[in-house]
Amino acid sequence: MNEGEGPLPEGQLARLVLEGVQSGEVRRLPGFRKGLHTVPDRVTPTTEAFLGKLCAPELEGEGEALFREARATFGYKRRDLSFSVSGPTGMLAARHFTLEKTYALDPSDPSLYLLTHRLAQLRGADPDLPAKLDALFPALFSTLLFPLDEAVSVEGLIDGVEALDENSPLTVDYPPDCRECTIRVPGVAAEAICNGHSLALRFPGLHGPTEIFTAFGQVRSAFLASGAGDLSALVRR
After folding, report:
1. Where in the sequence of the chain do the CATH 3.30.310 domains occur?
2. Which of 45, 88, 106, 159 has a beta carbon 3.0–4.6 Å from 52's, enabling a disulfide?
3. Which CATH code of 3.30.310, 1.10.260, 3.30.70, 3.40.50 fits the domain covering 138-237?
4. What are phi and psi of 192, to 5 degrees?
5. What are phi and psi of 125, to 5 degrees?
6. Per residue in 56-98, pLDDT tens?
């Protein structure tokens, strides 16, 4: 991640959030007992509590394994790392990051669950941080969120891209109400989407942290080099 070839400012790194969602059948969860349990057919507090009980053993087991792997990968001491489970959510809280794993019933089909991984609170100047995170969390994420400290004008971003020289590699798309805009950077698989309050990179499929950080760096460099003031300011914030 760079401005030119320099590192992403640590204040910006701390604001990045990586998210990814996977799905599966509730009846395939280890805690589900055929003949004893019933597959949910609606989302209610009762079925959500049922899911929390079903996924608790898996969260505990995977959390303990991640705890041990994180200790070995980062060389953590006791005070650097903790893991806890609350309902359908497991939280690995480390000195350099937090990782949440949350189960929820799929509203469109309650016989399925959605498992969301959320990596946040990234911190530290370790140049090997992305590689270490890859070792712990390979191919789990499809979205990078970059919240903005101050709201920006989506119309201003659109106008800035459209005012660039016709040879500019950047392109922009947007709906009639301009509630958001999608900017594409050649060579970057993700779409960069801004709604005025956050910048999101959305990728096809699931990826590891290094691949996503690299794409963000490419988008950031392209925005800074564009010469469009609003676009450059977006990734300097």
Report:
1. 138-237
2. 88
3. 3.30.310
4. -95, 115
5. -100, 15
6. 988 999 999 999 999 999 999 999 999 999 989 999 999 999 9
